[in-house]
Amino acid sequence: MAQSTFDDDDLFGEAADEMRADVEEHLASAKATLPTADAVWETDADNVLGALNGLRSALDTGDAVEELRQAKKQYVMGERAGAFEDDEELADEIEALQELVETLEDAHEQVGELASLVPQLKSDLEDAHAGGVDAEADAEADGEEEAEA
């Protein structure tokens, strides 16, 4: 039977290992909830609005923000306690993931704004063309006028 140790250094080392494992677990969970590259790149939509709505859904970060937050909290506690021997590696990984999540959130917002604009733009263009504006006919007329000149 193994003897339990209550030495402060041993306990601190054990706590540091557990804290690092928690940080790594939260980082892995955050990455797992991010959209796949294919989900962002591919579409099966029939029109632009469908593609935009699909992209907006694909850009959803899911629980990645909360998992990243938990990883960062654990990391900050461990770093301040001096628990990590190679804390730069974890810091770099956290920073890279944070930048990716922020980029996804920005893209999600921009696509959402564009998806809101496209139906109104389509309606305005339909109204303009219904009122006698015909871009193809105007282009052909301009071409004929230039040819005559």
TrEMBL record:
Spans annotated as Disordered = 123-149
InterPro entries, alphabetized: DUF5790 (IPR043808)
Query: What keywords appear on the UniProt entry?
Result: Coiled coil
Which residue spans adopt a coiled-coil conformation according to this UniProt entry? 87-117
Q: Name one Pfam family in it.
A: DUF5790
Q: Where is the composition biased (Acidic residues)?
A: 135-149
- The name under which this protein is listed is DUF5790 family protein
Source organism: Halobaculum litoreum
Query: From which lineage does this chain's organism come?
Result: Archaea, Methanobacteriati, Methanobacteriota, Stenosarchaea group, Halobacteria
